[in-house]
């Protein structure tokens, strides 16, 4: 009984990766399996609950009723992650959860209508990550080089820092989504199955992976001439994809124990990194012209920079955070995906006006062949209190998209603030976001907006 109680005792674990801005949390929940804590199981649990007020795209209907606006509550992310080491060389990672449950959708497969499995009810848990890892060259203070390899369903997907971002410590309320260009098409919620290698050489950190993309089989629309061809996801018997990301860390060195990149350190580290990445998948998309089907490689590239600096005197505890990324996506001719996060609307069959090209609800042109520039910045307001818990961090973000199919670029912004109750472990985020409305190709027709309030807690 004494042994069982000691195993079940939860203690603090001092891994800095998860200790942004809290003086009490340390690094979370850990079960020590030996006296010095070198053998352990670590748990992380988090919920992100949203309340939203949304201007719906023209031609939207919610549960059978025409709607120009809406208010709802939703479960953006409900997650559980565990990882374990019984040797410095071995690690196993398991991460399960749900995403995007609303009152109208996001429920179990096939749920609709009224009843126990009505619309939006009883979503199914699924694996986000599940991989095994082995350290070939252990990191040591007197050794510049380290190397670990692993395999499974993993998040080492290269491309950019934000492609491998942690969802525990965003600067803004959420990621912009185009940082996950394969999301739920040829990946499983930003993950693929394969093998990876990661490590450091001095200030240089690297991540590379070789993966088998999930099968896609969308049928391309046949068109009469080449300039009208539209590529869609169809990879047949998928060929291996290759991904990588390399960054140079000028100031403090970040942890690479897990793949998840921190969004804001709240002044607990001094970080300036520049990075570049890629993702390549042969024959990943197809288009059809006059009955002739062509296959297209998916070639994605990015460069980015991340800055997180304490500002002013240490006792005031101010901090400035900024991130900027440029993406160049070649996914086949005129490839375009319209996505709406937790989109609760469908087409209004009685609508007679000009519909939004992206579709109903809060859908917008999100991913496609073309270029994207994204920049965000935030400022943690200084405080003279000795051990402050409640902190305020205003932030803003700007996105420029220029997609081949739309023939007209767009700009949009997010503006908001994080109210930290205990660092990133307990915070409330308010954010207003705009999205572009297209009524047709080349016809950019104003914007719509969405305000969300998020309660975020992780332990």
From TrEMBL:
Domain of life the protein comes from: Bacteria
UniProt keywords, alphabetically: Signal
Signal peptide: 1-19
Protein name listed in UniProt: Short chain amide porin
Organism annotation: Sphingobacterium corticis
């Amino acid at each position: 009984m004494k042994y069982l109680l000691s195993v079940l005792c939860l203690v603090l674990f001092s891994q800095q990766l998860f200790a942004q801005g809290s003086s009490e949390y340390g690094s979370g929940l850990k079960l020590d399996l030996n006296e010095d804590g070198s053998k352990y199981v670590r748990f992380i649990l988090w919920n992100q609950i949203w309340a939203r007020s949304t201007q719906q795209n023209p031609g939207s209907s919610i549960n059978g009723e025409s709607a120009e606006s809406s208010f709802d509550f939703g479960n953006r992310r409900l997650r559980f992650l565990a990882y374990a080491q019984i040797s410095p060389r071995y690690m196993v990672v398991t991460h399960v959860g749900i995403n995007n449950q609303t009152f109208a959708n996001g429920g179990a497969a096939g749920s609709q209508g009224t009843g126990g499995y009505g619309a939006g009810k009883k979503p199914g848990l699924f694996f986000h990550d599940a991989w095994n890892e082995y350290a070939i060259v252990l990191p040591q203070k007197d050794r510049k080089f380290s190397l670990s390899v692993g395999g499974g369903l993993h998040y080492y997907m290269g491309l950019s820092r934000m492609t491998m971002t942690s969802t525990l410590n965003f600067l803004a309320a959420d990621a912009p989504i185009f940082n996950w260009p394969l999301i739920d098409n040829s990946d499983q919620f930003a993950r693929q199955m394969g093998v990876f290698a990661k490590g450091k050489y001095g200030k240089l950190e690297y991540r590379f992976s070789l993966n088998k993309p999930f099968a896609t089989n969308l049928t391309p629309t046949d068109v009469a001439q080449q300039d009208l061809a539209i590529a869609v996801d169809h990879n047949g018997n998928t060929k291996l994809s290759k991904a990588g990301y390399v960054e140079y860390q000028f100031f403090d060195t970040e942890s690479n124990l897990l793949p998840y990149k921190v969004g804001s350190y709240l002044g607990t580290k001094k970080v300036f990194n520049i990075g570049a990445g890629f993702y390549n998948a042969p024959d990943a998309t197809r288009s059809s012209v006059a009955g002739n089907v062509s296959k297209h490689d998916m070639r994605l590239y990015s460069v980015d920079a991340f800055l997180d600096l304490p500002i002013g005197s240490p006792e005031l505890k101010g901090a400035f955070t900024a991130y900027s990324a440029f993406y160049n996506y070649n996914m086949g001719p005129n490839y375009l995906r319209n996505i709406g996060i937790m989109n609760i609307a469908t087409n209004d069959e009685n609508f007679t006006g000009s519909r939004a090209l992206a579709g109903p609800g809060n859908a917008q042109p999100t991913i496609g062949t073309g270029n994207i520039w994204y920049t965000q910045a935030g400022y943690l307001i200084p405080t003279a209190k000795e051990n402050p818990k409640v902190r305020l961090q205003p932030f803003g973000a700007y996105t420029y998209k220029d997609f081949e199919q739309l023939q007209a670029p767009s700009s949009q912004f997010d503006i908001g603030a994080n109210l930290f109750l205990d660092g990133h472990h307990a915070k409330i985020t308010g954010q207003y976001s705009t999205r572009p409305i297209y009524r047709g190709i080349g016809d950019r027709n104003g914007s719509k907006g969405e305000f969300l309030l998020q309660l975020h807690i992780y332990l």
